[in-house]
Amino acid sequence: MLKIKPYLLLVLLSVLVSSCSNTSSPTTKASTSSPTEHYNNRLAMLKPHYRIFKPQGDAPYPTVLYFHSGEGGANGYYHDETQAKVSRIVKEGYAIVFVEAFASRGGVCSRCLYPSEAADDVLVSFDWANKQPWIDKSRIALFGNSFGGGTIMDALPKPAVNKPLVSLTKAKAVILKEPFCMEDQGVKGFYLVRVLNSWQDNFTIKLPTLVTQGISDEYYTACKAILDKNITNNAPITVESYQGEDHSLSVSAENDSWNKVFEFLKKHL
User: Fold this and answer.
1) What is the Cα–Cα distance from 156 to 267, expressed in whole angstroms?
2) 24-42: per-residue pLDDT in tens?
């Protein structure tokens, strides 16, 4: 039987811990900055990657803050389906602020970043939008597709470090299109990081919310658990479920979901 000396065992353990830690996203380390520093750092990271799309007509525009899915990989906008969705919203008369979660972090992959880590993107981007003269501040909605949906969900309950600076209470509507939900996995690498804040915490900001999702979606059960507890807690959430549909909706279900989205936007914006 091979015997390993204690000091060699310690070295091997150290190497293992180091290699596992290095697989984690740089954003997983706990922030020790002040609320103002945190806000400024996050805005400096995001702002160069905002993509602005404006409809025809004169400003100020009703505006949708778009938080993207894992489509397009490290750069969320460069995917045919994502661009088609953006165009669809703009053609209905809404401006879009497209928030690049992955590109703003140097091109990380979708599974290298959790919604809990990106939740402050929603807060900071909403605050930035409220300061733009071409945006109608009384008509701003949050739109999240898949990963982006989970990100918005995590901004609604999160007692963010920049909470004294930013509030989402002035947003008029939330749309969660096939949101990404998971049961809390506990840890990421060797850093203690929640996958979803909303798995444990209820929404403290209760905005009119529309959710579209297939019942056969792999994330449906976890999303339902999160949404049901918030509906019970009087959050104004409407869920449109599609029988036999998975995370990628069929053409007919997709078209129906968009009809529901635009009906909802017209009602609340």
Assistant:
1) 21
2) 333 434 456 788 898 899 9
> Which residue in 87, 146, 144, 90 sits closest to 121, CA to CA?
144
65 touches 129 (CB < 8 A): yes
The structure tokens listed for 184 are: 């809390």
In angstroms, rounded to a whole number, what is the distance separating the alpha carbons of residues 196 and 116? 5
Is-contact 123 162, C-beta < 8 A? yes
Q: What are phi and psi of 46, to 5 degrees?
A: -85, -40
Residue 174: both structure tokens together: 């939330």
Give pTM, 2 decimals: 0.84
Q: Report DSSP letters for 209-236, one per residue.
A: EEEEEETT-TTHHHHHHHHHHHHHTT--
Residue corresponding to tokens 């993107």: 121
Q: What is the largest CA-CA distance in the chain?
A: 79
DSSP strand E in 47-158: where?
A: 51-53, 61-67, 95-99, 135-145
Taking alpha carbons only, the member of 172, 178, 136 closest to residue 265 is: 172
Contact call for residues 174 and 215 (beta carbons, < 8 A): no
